[in-house]
Amino acid sequence: MNHDKPADCASIGIDLGGTKIESLLLSGSDEVLNRQRRPTPLASGYVAIITAVADMITHSLAQLPHNTPCTIGIGIPGSIDARTGLVRNANSTCLIGRPLQADLETMLGRPVQVRNDADCFTMAECRKGAGRGYGLVFGIIMGTGCGGGLCINGVVREGPHRMSGEWGHFSVDPAGVPCYCGNRGCVETLISGSGVEAAFRREYGQALEMVSIVRQARQGEPRCQRTFDRFLDDFGRCLGGLISILDPDAVVLGGGLSNIDEIYTIGLERVRKYAFHDCLQTPLLKHHLGDSAGVFGAAWTGRQQLPDRSVCDTF
Nearest CA to 10 among 75, 101, 72, 74? Predict the structure, then answer.
């Protein structure tokens, strides 16, 4: 069973993404004491990434009075394998097979909690955001990658393999393009920003960022219109199938692509087309906490205590 931290215990959250790292320092009453962002040094590799994370945590700790209890939670685009302690299923592939949690604990000299970033996002939105008050919520992050989290009556489920909600690597097209996970035609290859950009590059021989594809589609550029329409249709098929399985009370969207207005109009109509119901009423909700939802969830994750270890250390 998990236990909340003491009321006077501060919390540090880290959202480790493919493009940015964000840190957050919360007081025991959830007052924001410090925030930082910096680019993820992905090209420089694993050591540079965990060094940046450790530096941001150390900076946050320095803002606290001496001997202040503090927990640390980190959201990553993957999960820690409970058997080996190594990162698995991370779309930032340089993290895969690395003992990220153990390495950070050695560098910092204190325990940290690590959880999937989509779980952190879902936790935050169900606790303080768009998913609050719903029984069964599926939280989706659509950005560089595509992930999901499952919240049931206020509790985010990890599952025995720590992969509940990982719809991004459900293969919807066995003849589709290879995914880094080893399968073909995964959801992530179709409706993540990187997946859509790669599809445009394969089809037209030109590198174009997702934001440009969307903007030019709205302006009537034919290639971008075709790519964007296919994205919305793939979104509808992927989410419609998921809703047919879970029948959630609500779906909450986060990540950079969740800010695309057409998802909530054309995309929603495509979801209704593909779901196994002739009058689908499932609300498709935009995040309330912005692109920082994950870092709040990471901070709150850090407050949870595993049975065999204390996480609220003094600084």
Answer: 72
